[in-house]
Automatic annotation (TrEMBL):
Name of the protein this chain belongs to: MFS transporter
Keywords, ordered alphabetically: Membrane, Transmembrane, Transmembrane helix
Coiled-coil region(s): none
SUPFAM superfamilies (UniProt xref): MFS general substrate transporter
């Protein structure tokens, strides 16, 4: 069901994002959120009446179709809710809360699921509609004064950032999905997968706090260092020398999740014209989903160690591409100064 929802998100991101250009962004976001909630409610009802699993997969796909577009418009709305000079702090806080939810949600779902799995799904559905209710009423549209030429959302610089985001998300997903396999590789019970997932989340929370306190966009050189640190962490997890070194590697990965995610969001905001921002932000969300799909596919068809090695190589190639871009930009600036 998760795979179906993710694939549907990739398919629906462009058409559903472009469809909203003619509407108020807040109203369209509420409509997308309501559509997703209705699909989730249908999953609850289908589970209650014990309909075939195929029906649940189809309903999950319908919920996923609008998910990327909803995230894109939510990010556009954030630009109008938060002052530009406080946007890094807001994104850092969002990243911190996201990781806290990642840690607490499974615990809450398990507790509610012990009462009733259907009740657990119903609570999730109710929580999913909250953004549509809590979002402030604003009149946000693509500016009529903007001349909509043949500009494309997916330019080369945007594509580089999206690839970086995909590689980073694939690295994180490999650790999250492969945590049980990591525990088993050290001859621990599956429960001890928390030795790797909890440090990952704690390091990510600390990274989000650091971004919030710092409250400014990272320099390109700093982003390159963050990618290198993530590559080092992935390499340490791949080598799997000991529990301690693996946990340190996991924490290296987690510590740069929020700084990288915040930078990608801010730099794409600068790169995109007003009428394409929602589409670009939706593509960013979808690139994260592609990273999860990539990591899941590798872990399905290959061993954990080989999957981690391939993802480490992937993040290394991305870091090299970023280094070339940074050095090229630096040489252009030096030439202009001369």
């Amino acid at each position: 069901m998760i795979l179906a929802m993710t694939i549907a998100q990739v398919i629906g991101v462009i058409p559903f994002t472009r469809l909203g250009n003619r509407f108020n962004s807040v109203t369209y976001f509420q409509l997308l959120t309501l559509t997703r909630s209705v699909a989730l409610l249908c999953i609850v009802l289908a589970s209650w009446y014990k309909l075939p699993f195929t029906v649940l997969v189809i309903l999950a796909s319908l919920a996923g179709l609008v998910n990327g577009a909803a995230q894109g418009y939510l990010r556009v709305i954030l630009n109008h809710v938060v002052n530009a000079n406080r946007l890094p702090r807001g994104l850092g806080m969002a990243a911190t809360l996201n990781e806290m939810v990642f840690v607490l949600a499974p615990v809450a779902a398990s507790g509610l699921g012990s009462i009733s799995p259907v009740f657990s799904l119903l609570v999730i559905t109710a929580l999913g509609i909250l953004p549509a209710i809590l979002i402030p009423r604003l009149n946000i549209r693509s500016s009529p004064s903007v001349v909509k030429t043949q500009q494309r959302a997916l330019t080369r610089p945007v594509a580089l950032v999206l690839i970086c985001s995909t590689a980073a998300e694939a690295t994180v997903a490999a650790v999250e999905i492969g945590a049980v396999a990591l525990a088993l590789s050290f001859r621990y019970e599956p429960f001890y997968a928390i030795f790797f997932t909890v440090p990952l989340c704690l390091a990510s929370v600390m990274g989000g706090v650091w971004v919030s306190i710092r409250n400014r966009m990272s320099a390109p050189g700093t982003v390159l260092l963050h990618l290198c640190l993530m590559m080092l962490g992935a390499l340490m997890v791949t080598v799997n020398f000991s529990v301690i070194t693996t946990i340190v590697g996991v924490m290296c990965i987690g510590s740069v999740i929020a700084p990288l995610g915040t930078h990608f969001s801010l730099v794409l905001d600068e790169m995109s014209p007003p009428h394409l921002k929602a589409e670009v932000f939706a593509l960013l969300r979808t690139s994260n989903a592609m990273g999860v799909i990539f990591a899941s596919a590798l872990l399905t068809v290959t061993s954990l160690s080989l999957s981690l090695l391939m993802i480490t190589i992937f993040i290394g190639i991305v870091a090299s591409g970023m280094a070339v871009a940074v050095l090229g930009k630096k040489s252009v600036i030096e030439t202009d100064c001369e």
